[in-house]
Design a protein that fits this description.
Blueprint lengths: L10 H6 L1 H4 L4 H5 L15 E3 L10 H12 L11 H11 L6 E4 L2 H12 L5 E6 L4 H9 L2 E6 L13 H4 L3 E5 L11 H6 L6 E5 L23 E6 L12 E4 L2 H10 L7 H12 L1 H24 L3 E3 L5 E5 L5 H10 L2 E8 L10 E7 L3 H15 L1
The chain binds pyridoxal-5'-phosphate.
Pyridoxal-5'-phosphate (PLP) binds next to helix 6.
Length: about 375
């Protein structure tokens, strides 16, 4: 006689058991987890909430993916991602040993945290900015020093701050998200920890008026600086997940020990290499985005919004009635998605909030739809 079939409880049933939750490390148990922007799966949305590029990637990307798919997918990808490293190195004017490719820029931020920060050590980052740094620190059991920004998104000190000096890593998104402003090279000097590393997160580094390549790495503070870049934004490849770090080869060699062996897959390596080799395509899209950004900033000001001048592919603004949350909902009801952001503890008062809307630069048609909706809502 065959024995009765046992039905196992589903994974989600198991996770509901609170005694299982306590099996996690206390740091993981205590944390909220990072909440990414909404990604609707159905068509028909004007999607201006996660700073994707509204234009398609270079046609060379498609050709490269097809060729890679027809190639040898049964074997592991190149663990050192030589083709991409050589192309990125040429673009940045460094040797290939200065480049570490990753599964999105976020993976390199994780590798940095795991490489340099012990549990109990400190990281610093400007606040408000990219909340993921804090999430990664929580996973690692690290302490976080928020470097509060003024209402104009500036640092209010002119020498290296003790909170920075005491940090192992200082993460600086430049241009900053959500504000879009960019800090000067002088300010970056103050933000370099005395005994640690400055992580310059240049996810939006192709959009400023005068983008940097590796100039800062060759400056006085360059030896203890890691620049992170992504192909998600300027190269229109958010869907394939590819980023890279640029730093002194000694830092890259240490970080390589921490990454997964095959952290980039064959299709994304092919796509990213084709994309970075087609600078003409990327720069053409960049020009269109910058022109639309200028028009959006101007039109929002005419509608009475307060707009922070942007050096990125998005704009931070607050509406005249200070009703960002309501406006976000009203736009969403019209299938226009922008990012409503609310940051607590932004001022001397315990509960001071900073809230506003972060609007990604879409096509001209998408921005027209947004502006028309804003005008209707204002009337
Ligand atoms: C400041 C900043 N850094 C990093 C990233 C992540 O980039 P990736 O898509 O390469 O993981 C983002 C994404 O929005 C970002 O805003």
């Amino acid at each position: 006689m065959s024995s009765p079939i046992k039905v196992s409880p589903s994974a989600s049933d198991l996770c509901r058991e609170s005694d299982l939750m306590s099996l996690f490390r206390p740091a993981v148990d205590a944390m909220q987890g990072y909440l990414p922007g909404e990604q609707p799966t159905e068509a028909g949305w004007v999607k201006l909430n996660t700073n994707e590029n509204p234009y398609p990637p270079s046609p060379e990307v498609r050709n490269a993916i097809v060729a890679a798919a027809e190639g040898r997918l049964n074997v592991y990808p190149d663990p050192l991602v030589k083709s991409f490293r050589e192309s990125a190195a040429e673009l940045f004017g460094v040797d290939a040993e200065w480049i570490l490719p990753g599964n999105g820029s976020d993976e390199n931020l994780t590798i940095l945290m795991r490489s340099f920060v012990e549990s109990g050590e400190q990281i610093a980052y400007p606040y408000p900015s990219y909340v993921l740094y804090e999430t990664l620190a929580e996973i690692q059991g690290a302490k976080v020093a928020r470097l509060p920004l003024t209402p104009e998104w500036k640092f209010d000190w002119k020498i290296t701050d003790p909170r920075v000096a005491a940090s192992k890593l200082t993460f600086i998104p430049n241009p900053n998200s959500p504000s879009g402003n960019r800090w000067s090279d002088e300010e970056l000097q103050w933000l370099t920890p005395e005994k640690g590393i400055l992580v310059l997160d240049e996810a939006y580094g192709d959009f400023p008026d005068k983008p940097h390549k590796a100039e800062l790495l060759h400056s006085g503070i360059g030896k203890r600086m890691v620049i992170t870049r992504t192909l998600s934004k300027s190269y229109s490849l958010a869907g394939i997940r590819f980023g890279f770090a640029v730093a002194h080869p000694d830092l890259i060699a240490g970080m390589r020990k921490v990454k997964d062996s095959y952290n980039c897959d064959s299709l994304s390596i092919a796509a990213a290499t084709a994309a970075i080799r087609d600078q003409v395509w990327m720069l053409k899209n960049r020009e269109k985005i910058l022109a639309t950004r200028e028009r959006l900033e101007q039109s929002l000001r005419e509608l009475g919004f307060h707009v922070t001048p942007s050096q990125a592919n998005f704009v931070w603004c607050t509406p005249p009635g200070d009703n960002s949350g309501e406006l976000y909902e009203a736009l969403k009801a019209r299938k226009i998605l922008v990012r409503y952001m609310k940051f607590p503890y932004c001022g001397p008062e315990e509960n001071e909030l900073r809230e506003g809307l972060r609007i990604s630069i879409g096509t001209d048609g998408e921005i027209d739809m947004l502006l028309n909706a804003l005008k209707q809502l204002a009337s």
